[in-house]
Amino acid sequence: MEEIDEILSAVTAKDAHVLCHEVMSITDTMDVLRAKWNVEILTAILCGQTRFRDMQSAVKGISEKVLSDRLRQLADDKLIEKQECYGYPQRVEYRLTEHGKRLYGIIYQMTEWGVESGDDWTLKRINKGYTSQDILEQCHKLEKAGIQYWMTFLNGVAGREHSHEHAVNSAKIFNQCKPMLVGTGGLTLFPGTPLLEEAERGEFTPLTERELMQELLTFLELLTCDCEQNTHHTSSMNLTGPDFLKRKPQILETLRYGIEHFDMDKLTRIRNNKQTL
What domains can you pick out in the chain, each with its CATH number? Predict the structure, then answer.
């Protein structure tokens, strides 16, 4: 509580105005998420479907009455504005207001949060600030609101100490969600990062390239999400693409081949020479 008091005492009047504005935007965002069709309508407008009939075609399944009601409510909430265009016949179009654009930006950011692990030991170890149950709760909220999202599995972040549990429990959590894309990336320890410092003190044991591939294999063997899959690895394996479940046997076969035959010393040199993600 003392830290909170210090922060609040340092907030200027201008800062307070900005902070209140941001909190109001987040509150408005949650209101939008609770109402069916709102996100789809805002997306349609942002993508250029600015006329009523165009929106009705873009937002599959919405009735004329519901669309009319939602547009009226969004306008009352100052998220969109109606513009009457000159010409004959007269044309009405809708645009996002500045407040609507800011709110949609918050929604868009919400779809891109990285999970990194579904294993509670690992989440606590890397100070993510949430649990596997929190992941499920937030993903299910996005699904209920009709928002597509992707999830990320960070290959190697649990170290050798908890590698198997990290892969197994992450797959269990991911399988209870409906991401449009599952991304995986291998951990690289850059200078100045806490994990590298812990590794140098012997408190964290990084995985070798073969162990990274074995952990990834375990995760993908157990993954049952019907989604696109995107993998970044130091090898030249092409595992990325749509329809993960259809391609899964080929992906697993490629990984098993890599584990047995790839030059791990070369892959280690590639990773050690990486300067950025």
Answer: 2-107 (1.10.10.10), 111-272 (3.30.750.200)
Contacts of 52 (CB under 8 A, 6+ apart): 67, 68, 71, 92, 94
Nearest alpha carbon to residue 211 among 156, 169, 255, 168: 156
- Closest C-alpha among 205, 206, 149 to residue 178: 149
Q: What is the pLDDT of residues 172-207, one digit of tens each?
A: 999 999 998 898 988 888 888 888 899 999 999 999
Contact assessment for residue 102 and residue 119, using Cβ atoms and an 8 Å cutoff: no
Cβ count within 10 A of residue 184: 22
Determine which helix (DSSP H) or strand (DSSP E) holds 51, and give its type and residue range: none
Q: Which two tokens stand for residue 267?
A: 């892959």
Beta bridge partners of 183: 152, 230
Whether this model's pTM surpasses 0.90: no
Rounded CA gap, 81 and 75, in Å?
6
3-class SS of residue 184: strand
Is the bond leading into 89 cis (omega within 30 degrees of zero)? yes
CA dist 219 and 239 (Å) reads 14
